[in-house]
Amino acid sequence: MREFDVIVVGASGYTGQRVCEYLAGRARETGQRWAVAGRRAEVLAPLAELHQASGAIAADCTVPAEAAELAARGAVITNLAGPYYGRAETLVGACAAAGTHYLDLTGELVFVRGIIDRFHDIARDSGARIAPVAGYEALPFDLMALALLEDYMDRHGASPARIDLLAGAMQPPPGATGLGEMISGGTAETMRVMLENDFSGLAEDPTALNPADDPDRAEIRRAMPYDMAPRPDDLEPWTMPIFPGPYLHPAVVNRTFALLRREQVPVSASIHYRERMSMGGRAGAFAAPASYLMSVNASVMGWLSSTSLRFPRQIMKSVADRYFPKPGSGPSLENLDNWHWNIIGRASGPAGNVAMQLDADGHPGYRTTANMIAEAALILADPQAKTPGRAGVLTPALALGTAELPRFAAAGLRFSAVEAS
After folding, report:
1. Could you say which DSSP state residue 168 is in?
2. 272-277 and 162-167 as β-strands: parallel, antiparallel, unpaired?
3. How many CA atoms lie within 13 A of 172 on its CB side?
4. Three-state SS for 355?
């Protein structure tokens, strides 16, 4: 029995405070104990008092001894202190060794690849479920892909040939305009760090997060090349790539499928996972050129994140330094609850189709991201929750499973089966 069910690292940051707001009410409902953690005790104490947390822990998670002590006190560590590359590995290692579950909001493929290689076996042996990328990138997409896969296989006894997800056009409230309303300073800082440090080329590879010895990687790359342009068989014509990370979710979902195959689940290695974002019909006559323009933009961003050339990276970083929000900032608080968005999904194959939908309230990157990672932490900390017994460096879907999807309604995410077209 750990002292706390959930410990929130980085609780004083923009997203961390939103997580605390959620836990302040939700943890009272579930009867779970939670604490805030970070480096500055003078900030944590009033934050814990404001949100009625069960404790406040001052710790520098880059120091091995302090990270180990923190991991030993909680059943689940929720790490919101990004960027993660070069900063969070010590805490992940401590959680993996202690059998402590771990969640974060990283979108950094090079960081996730690194912790897979270093800590997967350790976490598997200790029973820790390490689940990075557990915000809007990429928890709802990963969970929907797994739910569609399971539904199709339950109904038809075979793997689907493809899974398509379409994120609906986000509906911001009146007055919510400008880059600062879309992304926080933390997200912008992550982009800056990756432009400076990530020369891995992982963004070009849909199997970037698969096991290193996965024999299916060549087949997966053949079946699912990155294609940013709209296609006639997409769920909706004239769509654009997922914003802001079209290269992230497929790598996460492919790891989900790869680890399921290792459990002898007959997921086809040639399954085609594809996701797009709707333009909501607002582009009108400009839908086709706008769709291709956004596709070109996504392709350029993919090249920038993969190239070894420093000059174009420096140009993009200069743009980010000048125009992107600064760390600690985020969208206007009065607008966070008034966003609406959805995702529709379809699994298809020779035997037929199955479909589902997610309807969500709140700013996707900040309100619902904070709510969903907090709810995921409460689920992982709950010994009565119907979660799978697997461990290791997993994906959000593999760590949580799909049996507890209804609990995410408390976080503003409502999953439902719909009639397949």
Report:
1. P
2. parallel
3. 17
4. strand
CB 6 within 8 A of CB 377: yes
User: What contacts 174, CB < 8 A, 6 or more positions away?
Assistant: none
Q: Has residue 212 got a pLDDT over 90?
A: yes
Q: Are residues 164 and 60 in the same domain?
A: no
pLDDT-based confidence at residue 284 (cuts at 50, 70, 90): low
CATH label of the domain that carries residue 81: 3.40.50.720
Domain residues for the domain of 180 are: 139-361
Residue at 416 is within a domain: no
**SS3 of 416, please?**
strand
pLDDT at 285 over 70: no
385 in a structural domain: no
Terminal CA-CA length for the chain: 48
Before 331, cis peptide (omega within 30)? no
Tokens of 267: 């997921």
3-state secondary structure of 328: coil
The answer to whether 172 and 367 have CB atoms below 8 angstroms apart is: no
Cβ atoms 33, 3 nearer than 8 A: yes
Q: Give the residues across from 356 on adjacent strands.
A: 345, 417
Does the CA dihedral 107-185-309-275 come out positive or negative? positive
- CB of 252 within 8 A of CB of 142? yes
Residue for token pair 């982009």:
191
> Residues 26-40: pLDDT tens digits?
999 999 999 999 999
CA dist., res. 135 & res. 163, Å (int): 21
Task: Bin 267: left if φ > 0, else alpha if -120 < ψ < 50, else beta.
Answer: beta
Helical (H) or strand (E) element with 345: strand 340-349
Structure tokens at 109: 């493929």
The predicted model scores a pTM of 0.93
Burial readout 180-204 (b: 16 or more C-beta within 10 A, e: otherwise): bbbbbbbbbbbbbbbbeebebebbb
Question: Quick one: which of 39, 202, 5, 179 has its CA closest to 106?
Answer: 202
| Final residue in a domain of this structure, among 344, 361, 378 | 361
- At 121, the amino acid letter reads D
Residue scoring higher pLDDT (242 or 301): 242
Q: Quote the pLDDT of residue 182.
A: 63
Asked if residue 393 lies in contact with residue 116, where contact means CB atoms within 8 angstroms, the answer is: yes
Please answer whether residues 36 and 57 qualify as being in contact, where contact means their C-beta atoms are separated by less than 8 angstroms: yes
